[in-house]
Amino acid sequence: MTERVVLAYSGGLDTSVAIGWIAEETGAEVIAVAVDVGQGGEDLDVIRNRALACGAVEAEVADARDEFADEYCLPALKANALYMDRYPLVSALSRPVIVKHLVAAARKHGAGTVAHGCTGKGNDQVRFEVGISSLAPDLKCVAPVRDYAMTRDKAIAFCESKNLPIATTRKSPYSIDQNVFGRAVETGFLEDIWNAPIEDVYEYTADPAQPREADEVVVTFRQGVPVALDGRPVTVLQAIEELNRRAGAQGVGRLDMVEDRLVGIKSREVYEAPGAIALITAHQELENVTVERELARFKRTVDRRWGELVYDGQWFSPLKRALDGFVDEANEHVSGDVRMTLHGGRAVVTGRRSQESLYDFNLATYDTGDTFDQSQAKGFIEIYGLSSKIAARRDLHQG
Amino acid sequence: MTERVVLAYSGGLDTSVAIGWIAEETGAEVIAVAVDVGQGGEDLDVIRNRALACGAVEAEVADARDEFADEYCLPALKANALYMDRYPLVSALSRPVIVKHLVAAARKHGAGTVAHGCTGKGNDQVRFEVGISSLAPDLKCVAPVRDYAMTRDKAIAFCESKNLPIATTRKSPYSIDQNVFGRAVETGFLEDIWNAPIEDVYEYTADPAQPREADEVVVTFRQGVPVALDGRPVTVLQAIEELNRRAGAQGVGRLDMVEDRLVGIKSREVYEAPGAIALITAHQELENVTVERELARFKRTVDRRWGELVYDGQWFSPLKRALDGFVDEANEHVSGDVRMTLHGGRAVVTGRRSQESLYDFNLATYDTGDTFDQSQAKGFIEIYGLSSKIAARRDLHQG
Amino acid sequence: MTERVVLAYSGGLDTSVAIGWIAEETGAEVIAVAVDVGQGGEDLDVIRNRALACGAVEAEVADARDEFADEYCLPALKANALYMDRYPLVSALSRPVIVKHLVAAARKHGAGTVAHGCTGKGNDQVRFEVGISSLAPDLKCVAPVRDYAMTRDKAIAFCESKNLPIATTRKSPYSIDQNVFGRAVETGFLEDIWNAPIEDVYEYTADPAQPREADEVVVTFRQGVPVALDGRPVTVLQAIEELNRRAGAQGVGRLDMVEDRLVGIKSREVYEAPGAIALITAHQELENVTVERELARFKRTVDRRWGELVYDGQWFSPLKRALDGFVDEANEHVSGDVRMTLHGGRAVVTGRRSQESLYDFNLATYDTGDTFDQSQAKGFIEIYGLSSKIAARRDLHQG
Amino acid sequence: MTERVVLAYSGGLDTSVAIGWIAEETGAEVIAVAVDVGQGGEDLDVIRNRALACGAVEAEVADARDEFADEYCLPALKANALYMDRYPLVSALSRPVIVKHLVAAARKHGAGTVAHGCTGKGNDQVRFEVGISSLAPDLKCVAPVRDYAMTRDKAIAFCESKNLPIATTRKSPYSIDQNVFGRAVETGFLEDIWNAPIEDVYEYTADPAQPREADEVVVTFRQGVPVALDGRPVTVLQAIEELNRRAGAQGVGRLDMVEDRLVGIKSREVYEAPGAIALITAHQELENVTVERELARFKRTVDRRWGELVYDGQWFSPLKRALDGFVDEANEHVSGDVRMTLHGGRAVVTGRRSQESLYDFNLATYDTGDTFDQSQAKGFIEIYGLSSKIAARRDLHQG
């Protein structure tokens, strides 16, 4: 039987050319798989037909938007996942769901190899290949750009020589990856890290500096899951999409940072993630209200490791599964409402209420009615400070 | 000889009354010590004279603003200290510098006790007393509000009966603590955590929602220390003060959160820290450019522990000293310029440049001239993902 | 109705006297509750009758040995819990199970207070009272030794004056706590930390220096649970008991350390825990074989926090529950056999085998048949070392 | 000018053959560098002459034993470095000191490449090459066994055809690496992880099961550095060597474990490190006596990361330097004596005394004279347990 290769297909120039390129390099039949994770753009049917027109023996398209939101974005939200305290893992989250569909297609069509369009210097090649080897250790991986020297110029020449039905317009100055959880922009003049981004770079967010009316939203969570906006029930996907629109219209969620890539280099990245940032902001504050202090403190260590691990392409790793167990348990009581003002690039929490609140007005208030027994403080302080005091007695004596 | 008590004196009603109250309770002579950490308000001489008029046998005032900035705010900046990922430790930083002056005064005047005006349910009593016991394990501590039942009403009555020269106006609805690093507001209607703050609450920051021209600033750091603004050399104190003005004018640095207190309860806090937030934002991004990845990752663990420890009143502890050693070492290369736009409540980094940069254009670029050897990626991915792959082989087999 | 107090009853002098002492101090009726956690000694019926003879209105005894082994010792084993890398938490584990029985008795008998025999300077008072307030926040706690000044001398006098049926022999020179998971000895000449323990101190272990035949045991685990010894099925309790005997006979499990107490002081502790140490040793090595590297690395952080938390009396805390979720998940594949030699005070693993092993002979071997592709190493090393190399280029240039 | 290659030379078959092999493969001149890190065996002059006889254009030998002990073993001791809680990093510590000498030789002789004898599946190739790229990013690395397919059989054939002055005896069944800090043994029948090691495997340690007289030693530390044994001043090297002899004679320091290699596989390792284990045991207990609790707790996190980092070949990394800063600070007060009994495979601490002790007899004792104020405990417990109690009130209500 002819070898078969499953290709992660986007509909763009590179992966369209890759269909024929892989076939020529390997003699294999190519099956194109396009996964909708909310990246927008063309209709899936259009993409499907283009793959076939470019020579794919099969073309599969999948609407994975709810799956992506429920099984990939939601765990990130529960872990307040912000790589380097900033970046909500937009691309890092979409790779594993795409991997799942690629592996399923490889099994269905009897393919022994999975191909993707990544270069050899980014994170995504690692995320694809480590993901595939974790779900299907027997499958091989190939990346035509990296492994078969399929440069942009050669791809355009190939496209023209084969008369492929793709517009080979001048490439965008930027390299872009987007999905429902956000949008990543790199390269171009941004590679000079002293240069500021220009408005041209952004698509998911309006200019936060433009005057406009503020928007106010109440997000309701149940056990860490956003279940309603302004009282209307929503799915996780709907919550992200609506907040992408509303927070995006207020310029919320722009990020500009120098980032530590998994492959050891630093790169300049610009992101837009209005829905993600608004939801994480609300979720964090609801945790402040409903999660006990020591659990909250340790959860920050877990959350940070979760974010690093997923950024580093280890979505399907044993550690990720065990961290998820911790994170789910910690979200058990994260239920309630958070009111936020969306305005001028900021999502600002202005109120929180919860049946699960650990905030106790009577303990906290300085008003009459206070139930906190202040006489206990003296003993607490003495014993709480004792180990430092004993050390101080020694150190002062010697100093 | 008569017992002597050193009192942390603010010039306000509570501590003015405490002078006489302590004297009556204990028969001791009271020495008032006021420390200027940039809280503004009255002249130190006015405060000094009021203390004497209220019965203090001695009154000392100290301008500790530079000391506070250099020795307390700066280490916090180097550690990007944000308790619960938000709060730049405004009050927690000022307590140890005040403690240092109280202990020095106690030694100078032969006092055996230090008194402070805190209640028995907050963090500051712990910070004062653990700090004092770490610098002077032999000194006793007393808090008239907590230990001698000196309530507000009784204090006003005392004040009036003794004809003390203090205005006993109706108390502010808020409890406020402020210094050059920021301002903390609590109590009042904010104790209902569903209530949004009103403009009335703020003093250090203008309303971010008001349209105005953006401000742009270049902050220069040398080894983690801010040394120039827009090219003009500044002390740390000047850097904080100027950014308090400029970032404050743009509404930068407002925080509203439910916070885990050291004494085990959650409380609602509103903060303004325009200079602190602007400086930390700039410093973090310069770290992103100049600090190697694994050092940066572990530093986040150290920074978080540093913030918890200082929040928890352990400024003078052995662990704090050892963490400082790490943080200083990690800041060795954090030198360079960060350009920020201050506007609409946000301090946004738009550019960074550094002689110490680890960002390598030639490794990062997707342009020609790229020096990254992509052929190495294949081997990296295979071995990097090997332990997960071996685990997957086992787990899939059993699943 | 008369107030009722539930007392944690051991049958010894202190808690026998406490029955009457509490009654006199408070006028309450005292219900004695004795919990068998494998401490050995007298029959539970004897203890029950003594409580009644000493004035208890009710006396309950519970055989909690299996409950203690399954629900308290087993989670500690799964977390390899060794406080300060040494101490298997013997006493810290028994307090929460006793607390559970005390609270149940308080509910059953309508008591509003729980009493225990601890002093005011140890960890156990905290473990009892924090445990009780976590299971029954409405119950009050009282400790006659600490709160009612019930010293040893006064207790003996009380005993004699009331003619209580307790032998008031000279107290043991040591303070001892023991249960099936181990035995703790403190005070006496051990308080001079330069003094070595003498054989007299030990009961669970023979002198390791005496020549004897080695013992060999194969421990079988299923998902982290010891389920068989030398192929014979055992309960967790039986596993601990049998290894207490066999490892104890070889002198395994003696510990002598200076320990950081929760109340801020350091104390000298001598422990014997032959079964616990043998089981943890075997479990750790089976984890080495069956747990993926990154999961194993992070689990060490979780295990350490677990041990601190339980030592610190937070068994019933939210963080403990969430850590348990992680630990259970991490133990999912910890199944297989570990062969150990018990001899001369050491439990030494000599072999391991597991259906879940991640050790792959063909990858590890240096023999022919090796399946490890060494050509990948070059690329791995280059990219793995890249961030350090880039930093080195900068640092060497400047040095 | 002819290219020059610096080769890490051991004097054994593989690296002796590599001299000619590299010359044939590359046409370069080979400079052999042998570094004495206490591995014993032949005289350095003999090794030097053999290198020249095998075709090296230059041969350098260095006695780096004190350098290795002072600058590599000592930091490991201060960090109680035990990879996977067991392994004292024997080989991992020697690689960086060898790297330093290789780079110095490359600079001196104008070489552009460094060669080593490692295979492509172990940790040491990474340690060598990442180390070299961190000290000399411009140097290239080559490993004949891995890169030029120099198998054992081909090496023997080469040796015989060139008539090299090396005994090509049947290889030892084990792969061995040893230095003054310990000895590592792998491969052979040990690759079946159910097989127990046999006595034949060990060289640094006597059989712990043989009856013999116990040995007692007092180790004196100053700021974490072992400075005397039984009162006689020693260098770090002497301390290790003497304890290798004395603890080795008692069978102390044998380890048998399955270990997570940096390259993603698990391997079976047997170690002997009598001096290292004895010194770390003593150092840990002296830390228990002299280091404040919270510093000690965080130091365990630092120590663990230190060990992982060094195991992973990142000795010269920025994070390693910053961790060293912490570790040195934490050792500032680790001074005093530890008495240990060495016997039957165990190094057991029996006494400790220190001018820097934080153990306070008067606080710890249960005797009269106790200075601990037990009345403070009640307040401490109430506030210490408050956050758990508030969470419990919520959770019980809902449960």
UniProtKB/TrEMBL annotation, chains A, B, C, D:
Give the enzyme's EC designation: 6.3.4.5
This protein's superkingdom? Bacteria
Outline the extent of the Arginosuccinate synthase-like N-terminal domain.
4-165
Q: Which GO MF terms does the UniProt record name?
A: argininosuccinate synthase activity; ATP binding
Q: Which SUPFAM superfamilies match?
A: Adenine nucleotide alpha hydrolases-like (SSF52402), Argininosuccinate synthetase, C-terminal domain (SSF69864)
Asked if the record carries the keyword Ligase, the reply is yes
Could you state one GO cellular component term attached to this entry? cytoplasm
Task: List residues binding ATP.
Answer: A8, Y9, S10, G11, G12, L13, D14, T15, S16, G117
The metabolic or biological pathway listed in the UniProt record of this protein is: Amino-acid biosynthesis; L-arginine biosynthesis; L-arginine from L-ornithine and carbamoyl phosphate: step 2/3
The residues listed in the UniProt record as binding L-citrulline, with positions renumbered to this chain, are Y87, N123, R127, S175, E259, Y271
The record's Gene3D superfamilies line, in alphabetical order, gives: Argininosuccinate synthetase, chain A, domain 2, HUPs, Single helix bin
User: Which key words are in the record?
Assistant: Amino-acid biosynthesis, Arginine biosynthesis, ATP-binding, Cytoplasm, Ligase, Nucleotide-binding
Q: What is its main location?
A: cytoplasm
Specify which residues bind L-aspartate according to the UniProt entry for this protein. T119, N123, D124
Q: Which residues form the Arginosuccinate synthase C-terminal domain?
A: 174-390
UniProt subcellular location? Cytoplasm
Reactions catalysed, as given in the entry: L-citrulline + L-aspartate + ATP = 2-(N(omega)-L-arginino)succinate + AMP + diphosphate + H(+)
Q: Name one GO biological process term.
A: L-arginine biosynthetic process
Q: How does it assemble?
A: Homotetramer.
Q: Which family does it belong to?
A: Belongs to the argininosuccinate synthase family. Type 1 subfamily.
> PANTHER family attached here?
ARGININOSUCCINATE SYNTHASE (PTHR11587:SF2)
Protein's UniProt name: Argininosuccinate synthase
